[in-house]
Sequence to fold (399 residues):
Amino acid sequence: MEKLIIYNGKVITPKGIIENGFVLIHGEIIENVGEGEVEVSEDTILIDAKGKFISPGFIDIHVHGGGGHDFMDGSVDAFLKIAETHVKYGTTALNPTTLTSEVEDLFITLDSYKEANRLNTKGAQFLGVHLEGPYFAISQRGAQDPKYIRNPNPEEYKKILDYSDDIIRWSAAPELPGAIEFGRYVRSKGKVLALAHTDALYEEALEGFNNGYTLATHFYSAMSTVTRRNAYRYAGVVEAGYLIDEMDVEVIADGVHLPAPLLQLIYKIKGPDRIALITDAMRAAGMPEGESILGNKDTGLKVIVEGGVAKLPDLSAFAGSVATADRLVRTMVYDAGIPIIDVVKMISETPARIMGVNKTKGTLEKGKDADVVIFDDQIKIAMTIVKGDIKYRETAFPV
Fold:
């Protein structure tokens, strides 16, 4: 196994930023992280970071597509092209995410995932499938197709979980009839459970949390906040996310879904240990603005991409994110004014912990997977390395 040394960079570690630091990679694993010079053998590949940041790879635990493809297209090629698109923007690992659909279409997507996972050699690594829906509150459906939204059915969800062991997380509304029993079953299978597209009151969200709904999917988006019923005010899911200290939250930090003041508020209350930055990107990520499709290329919803976000054709609401991981980091650092070491934690270490892969991913430490990103002060990606293999290199950044 060859050795690779990235040197002369600002290495972002859990303990701080190492100036004039290096990362030594042996095969797929990080062998050492340190400061200054390091002895090298003749067969070692040297990469001069030229003063740029050397960061753990970005982990996107909620992404639907990119590069003109959607995971719901149900093809192996779509999976591979999406992985290849996002690796260019610093993503080294991701969770392919579905939309509400018929079970048969979901099975096609799961079959495609299994084959694509075997063939994926050029893009970001797949960490397992995230099922978003179909058990949602119709009032909080967002751009999800209402004809597929339904309440949890034990016969159905047990069949789905039995069909594939590649499912790693599931998002649903905890207030629905049968949702608590559903949540208990999902957690009994060792999956991450999240509340999403929900109109729950605080008390319902708390019951959900106590029964396994420990993550809030795209925080603020498609979820209840303070409301009035029969003249009385009630707290909602947003307030539950803040009040329940142990609840993790996903944040679409594209600067559009959530403006800078809200990003700052979430950071101030939850802190970097409980926030996972996500793209929630649809097929238009990494593509020119204009018309696009949310979901399956043949049966999905037509949308308009303008101003860095997808919108419904009547421009009445957002219909999806077109963000890439580098944009999330850039927005948090330069728009929200958050220290880069905390921002990187929110897109590497914290999502790794949430998805249970933090023993091998999420930080630059000896013995962990060699997932590394090199970027400059403007968060422009110069190189992406996945398990020791260079997957993307900016043309002007020679090895």
